[in-house]
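Researcher: Last one for today. Full complex below.
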Amino acid sequence: MSKVTFRKAVKRYGTFTALQPLDLNIREGEFLTLLGPSGCGKTTTLRLVAGFIQPSEGDVYIGDENVTGIPPQKRGIGMVFQDYALFPHMTIEENIGFALKERGDSAGAIRTRVWDLLELVELQGVQERYPSELSGGQQQRVAVARAVAHTPRVLLMDEPLGALDLKLRESMQIELRNIQKNLGITTIYVTHDQIEAMNMSDRIAVMNQGVMEQIGSAEEVYDKPTTKFVADFIGQINLIPVDLPEQTNGHAVTGYMGSEIKVGLAPGRILPTKRAVLGIRPEQLDIVPADTMPNGVNQLSGRIVVARFVGNVIKVEVEIGPEQTIVIDSHPSLMPQLSGGDEVAVTWKPEAGFLLED
Amino acid sequence: MSTIDTETRTSGGIAPVVETGTATGIAPVPETRAQRTRGAVRWQTRQAINFWLKWIMVILAYVFLHAPLIVVIGASFNGGGEYAAIEFPPVSPSIEWYFEIPVGQFESLGLSFALAALASLSAVVIGVPAALGLVRSNLPGKALIGIVFRSPLQIPAVVSGIAFLQMFYLIGDTTGFYAQGGFIGLAIGHIFIAIPYVVGTVVAVLQRFDHRLEEAALSLGASPWRTFRRVTLPVIMPGVYAGALYAFMVSFGDVPLSIFLTAPGYVTYPVELFSALENDFDPSILASGTLVILFCLVVMIVVQRVVGLDALLKIGGTGKGR
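Model: Here's the assembly. Have a good evening.
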């Protein structure tokens, strides 16, 4: 169990910069997820910790040890790969015991440890079999057991659930998280699936084009995104181009098409200075009759384009300006009152919105 | 296809027609029983034709491949006169020709086995690292090196034979050591023609090799050498076996190259047979040929038992893999 630290780590391939200078502290025992679209640098970051690649500049630390330049086999890591990468010519027991044998443990010690690990991942009785004889989910568990057998300092996981179907993926998320908590092992997890990230992580680091845009708990990145990319990537959001805001006591004031909009300001929040967008989650918006008087809330008027029933909510699209629609999550019981073409007003509390640099 | 056809198909394959008719007879189908029966008959006939056609093709293929062998084996049991032609089926069966095989042929056979074993072994020793270099490294002239390693396949063996002969003379004229007409000359030539087979199969396996297996081994604390020994080599081993087997067979059967490099005392088995047939036909050739065929059969069975021929033929398949 060790912390992992990046100090100004950069990775370049020729003229392409896969990872912009990164400073990151991963705490002891933490489950940190690197989240972002493909090509965002999350796998590069993970492979820098593994030692499969070396930073072009800067340093990587595991615990207090600077591991820059140290090859993977000397780093004390464990890794789970997307397609598991189990050794096809070895039995499950040999797979799980691989690191222990390399370390020089006795055959008896290896056997005992493998049994314990199979119990941990709830797969007793398969030790004589070969990986091809197991299902995807079972192979996944073996891969995890193999990666933690030698009690590595860090556990690295590269989209380990990507090959499983949805149902299994969800139950494996919980299971992986439980195993990680049991072992208390520092874990870096790579995924492009935001739900997965939110389900499992202590903290999520959202990456885009080689830059770590924001790092925080699931609540923080969802409720208080600091960049437009993060706001857009995590969950659904309405982004409305607004006037440059001005700060007045405790909140910011901006405007859209002549309507004044108040935005609550969290302490330390920096206001956009070039072009501003206002972000509001669909579930934070309410639809009221067009003639309602504003009452301490922000209000924009518009026309319903369409209302779609999607099960637990109705997704209402409202046109609030030229080529500007926003989506509101409304309660299904309101469906009869919402029809295309109706003039309505959309309201939200000042603290529900946030201002971002466009 | 009418609906009844589908029904018949699901209700159980090649069941007799009449039975199918009765079984579904209760269902209110707007066709008469006779029509239904006809539909089923058509489908059944087609199934039967497919079945038999498949078997006929398989049998024809086997006959095509094995008929020459069977003729050779059969004719080797001919009895009678010294200058009997190839007779199949054998007349007055006997095994007399098996006692007429010249001792020289057994010596040649021994030489050919030694050569083939040496050639395939050397091809593995040279070819596996070569294949690793060709696939894994980023040498600047990689494509060119690949062509060099494959070239023995593209140059006609006769040309190679002449070239080796010339080269050995040249070397002999300057150093005084003439390699042709001896074991060393033959061995060099056979290794030359054997290498591409090992390089070819191992390159094929390596190209399909999942490099994350190696990353996994490294991450689990294995050094690069241990990773190669415990993971890479075992996974590519079927390809190595297959390449070695091909190399052995190519070396063992070679005439056009060997014929230039043989000399009295160093005549390979195929060259020996070739020259024996050239001079005059001796039925003992059939007998010795039969012995070699049987020997190869035994080797194949042993290989099948020990390694599994499927594994060899399925080169690159990671064996117990995904």
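The first strand of chain A starts at residue 4 and ends at 13. Chain A is about 25% helix and 35% strand.
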